[in-house]
Specification:
heterodimer, A: 113 residues, four-stranded antiparallel sheet, globular, B: mainly beta
């Protein structure tokens, strides 16, 4: 298996623009997680899905952030409108079940100017 | 909410040294994760353990549930072990992980 795939790997955008990050989990995994990593706050869970259903989105910073998982092999994290404080590395991870070992994608480095 | 503390924050070692990284948490858990983040940014899960000890190559992870403490040991350290090591424990809901700040390890040849 190719592992968790994320795109794009790098994204530079201007404040106010919409940003969409994409993730393809490992085939057969039932849980998908979106994380954000910054120097100040480290790694934080934004939202996770079980069987395509959002279970815990308490980490989503505000209404500008939204995540979807239309099917078992694809998820998106959207920021609209983007702000400079959204600059971070966004990781997607998947696991067989929510409490099992998680496999991380390579991350998307987002810079909002 | 669980609080996770890692120590030390930074660690420099000479090649061949035995390394210990510590993780303490405040609320009882079902399992604890150790992750490794390479200098390039990629994150790899090293261990998930709920009791006792696990070993993988030169890496050993131990956990003491009663004392709410886990350690990650690296035997015969090598420069390629240089990375950030992160401890994580379950948060409020199933699947929600709370992460420590990480320990940055640098192994000099």
């Amino acid at each position: 298996d190719a592992g968790v795939i994320q795109s794009p790997r790098h994204e530079v955008t201007e404040m106010g623009q919409e940003v969409t990050l994409r993730c393809k989990p490992i085939s057969g995994h039932n849980s998908l997680f979106w994380y954000r990593q910054t120097m100040m706050r480290g790694l934080e869970l934004l939202i996770y899905f079980n069987n395509n259903v959002p279970i815990d989105d308490s980490g989503m910073p505000e209404d500008r952030f939204s995540a979807k998982m239309p099917n078992a092999s694809f998820s998106t994290l959207k920021i609209q409108p983007s702000e400079p404080r959204d600059s971070a590395v966004y990781f997607c991870a998947s696991s067989l079940l929510a409490t099992y070992e998680q496999y991380f994608g390579p991350g998307t480095r987002l810079t909002v100017t | 909410k669980n609080e996770v503390e890692q120590s030390p924050q930074n660690l420099t070692a000479q090649e061949g040294e035995f390394i210990t990284i510590n993780c303490s948490y405040s609320v009882g858990i079902s399992a604890l994760h150790w992750l490794q983040q390479h200098p390039g940014g990629g994150i790899v899960s090293l261990f998930m353990l709920s009791s006792g000890k696990k070993k993988h190559g030169r890496l050993i992870a131990t956990i003491n549930i009663q004392e709410k403490h886990s350690s990650l040991h690296i035997t015969a350290s090598h420069p390629r072990d240089s990375a950030v090591y992160i401890c994580a424990v379950p948060g409020g809901s199933q699947g929600n992980l709370i992460f420590g700040k990480g320990t940055k390890l640098s192994v000099k040849p």
